[in-house]
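Archive entry: two folds, one per protein. Generate the first.
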Amino acid sequence: MAIETTISTPLPAGVQPQSVIVLLHDHEAYIRTTCPQLISYRRLSGPSISVRAPVGEPCVFEITDKRPTGQTTYKLTVTNQAEGVDSLVEGKAPTGTMAIKTRWRVKSDGNVGNVLEEEIEIDSNMITKKMIKGTIEKGHPEYHRSFMAQATKGKELAS
């Protein structure tokens, strides 16, 4: 059985929701932001990296990044959605296979305004699940802040 967690970050004043969605739809920016130990990536299917994929069309990448135990290669599927992006990481660790599904959405929250919300579902063996969940809950808020900073910078460049 999979375990789930949610990370939610308010959009700073002046950051337009559409700016964050555009960044999420930029798969190169998405990969570089969410894979901080990136060594390389290549597109396996979907439109060219220079072309934005239409909403609902999955793009599959092979990602290689650094881990404490060396480097690892896994498959990443990214699918643009109207309010954000869905992703699926499928990999093999020494302890077995894992799948991490995320749903990134820019939403309106009545209490704080607009938020970037990431719903995460982790499926692997019991020991690995808890370790992955802890790593995600520790690292992903920084990815959210990075998207906000990029959206702010994009706004300044457009001015």
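Generate the second and append.
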Amino acid sequence: MTTVLDASALLAFLHDEPGGDSVARALDGGCVSTVNWSEVVQKSLQRGVDVRGMQQEFMDVGLVFEPFTPQQAELAAQLWESSRRHGLSMPDRACLALARDKALPVLTADRAWEQLDLDIEVRSLR
């Protein structure tokens, strides 16, 4: 695995938003937390997207789906204090917990993450 992808990154790719091309390059060998995958599916359903087969399509291009572990749950909770003033949600912190757990950089469309003082490399796709 090379990069953790946030839900915002996958959504940018799916909806041809700015930065989606950099997400396309990160899919093969990238990974996503199942928490963030749930967010991608939910937001896609809100837009009326037929999500049947979507997970398999991502797997076919090399994206790995990582289960949200109890250790990552604890890390996400511990990140609350240092990230709350930046408005990070629990799924945001789940993504960061996966990145910390796997010692990988994270790719996101959320620019506020760049201001976090964490030992996690944050790459903005925009």
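Annotation attached to the second fold: The domain at 3-124 is CATH 3.40.50.1010 (Rossmann fold). The first helix runs from residue 7 to 14.
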